[in-house]
Design goal:
This protein has helices at about 20-25, 40-55, 85-115, 120-125, 135-145, 155-160, 175-185, 200-210, 225-240, 265-275; strands at about 5, 30-35, 55-70, 70-80, 190, 215, 240-245. By secondary structure, it is α/β, with parallel strands linked by helices. It has a seven-stranded mixed sheet with strand order 1-2-3-4-5-6-7. The longest helix has 27 residues, at about 85-115.
Amino acid sequence: MFIDLHVHTKESDGSLSVNEVLELASKKGIQALSLTDHETTHGVEIARKYKDNFKLKIIPGVELVTAFQGHEVHLLGYFNDSCLENLSLQARLKELRYKRTSLAFDMVKRLQSEGLSLKWSEVEGVANPEGTVSKGHIMYVLHDQLNKNDVPWSVIAAFFQPGGAAYIPFLEHAFEDAVDLIYSCHGIPVLAHPGLLKDPQLVNQLLEYRPIGLEVYYGYWEKRADLIAKYEALGREKAILTTGGSDFHGPYSLVQLGQINVPNYCFDDLKFKLDLSL
């Protein structure tokens, strides 16, 4: 089975609509997909209406930006369909979208103080009005503005990395609270892209709070093969399951939809633990 368990759409900071992602996945021969938009499950609701048109198995998901010991940590949550009607989850996600949008506004102010001619209205214009406005949307606008000068994407991304002019970590959602939130909805929390953490030593501590999964098969890493092997071993030792995916955000992504080889057992384990009848 050809699977991708980490995918974003226009419902958060992806550049393709849900329908466009489903169509692309179908063309690529992907059979099982998880939409993991930031702080929203609205894309999953849309996908449920159209998935039969593309013969895709859809696992509901979300990606949460959390904080642990002053570090920004991303956490994936996987659910069965009941999460979409969980009022506590949806209320918390709405609150987090508001907070992350406020943070993006502060990032724009910082970039303006650095002399960039960037307007908040321009950033809002490329974001979903019902979703989070995030650094991804700011990056889209900057790319359009600076592309005429052939400014590479890596230079734009550096504004938002530690030490960059617009780097402001989101520290208003504790990792532990996010894990508890996912479990309260009978979901499975999975530590996202551990190889991107500023301090890799945190991974062991994060896996010790409660039994969670580990995203192992991932592409945005230097020395990808070495890190996959490292986290495969750690996952076998300390995680309840392992997952993987492209972290696809659109055609501009360095890793394309379905490009990461994710073993079938990742889907099977997740399906079993979620009691999904896909």
